[in-house]
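Hey team,

Filing this mostly as a record. A colleague (T.K.) asked me to run one chain through the structure pipeline before their review meeting, and I want the input and output archived in the tracker in case anyone asks later how it was produced. No errors, nothing strange. Just documentation.

Input sequence:
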Amino acid sequence: MEEKGFIFDLDGVIVDTAKFHYLAWKELANQLGVNFTEEHNELLKGVSRGKSLEILLSLGDVTLTDFEKEKYMKEKNIRYLAYVAKMDESDILSGIKELLLFLKQNNIPFSLGSASKNARVILEGVNLLEIFTAIVDGNDVSKAKPNPEVFLIAAEKLKLKPENCIVIEDAAAGIEAAKRAKMVSVGIGEEEMLGAADFLLSSTSKLTIEYAKGLLN
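Output structure:
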């Protein structure tokens, strides 16, 4: 049987940094006079920083120069990193650390596949940086999900065929990217958002070691 492996998204799968993104974008929106709610924040899940800013600006019908956009994106990231700096192991989502340790101990390859440019900082903060076989983040890719680039690079780093990779994702764009890469997809969240996933779990606590073994078989 050919070797299989896992590719994990970061936000909403390993840690919940969505709340920090929301707070940082909300502060920026207030500054720009844009009404930005938690529902609006759902639109930014799995989306690059540049695209997220465009969505936020369109909500308030605000126009900025490229220079201003760069400035605001940097500001947003500084605010976000200030929240992230306070993270520790207690921020790892339920069941994930146990699963990663099981995969590591059993030499089952696994990679990060995230749009976040801060992925390594976050993993270091929650003490998971050293555990990953491979890491592909926003610094390694030029195309955002739903483009499959991030997952295809991860498969390459793991020396696995795309069809032998199992992607764990909480965003619709990520599930679509996995499909385009011809990988198996496991959605973490609600069916209305992630109905296209091959398998669906309500939370990471359902992603048990036994469940993972089943996916590998």
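Quick notes for T.K.: The CA atoms of residues 85 and 125 lie 7 Å apart. DSSP finds ten helices and six strands in the chain.
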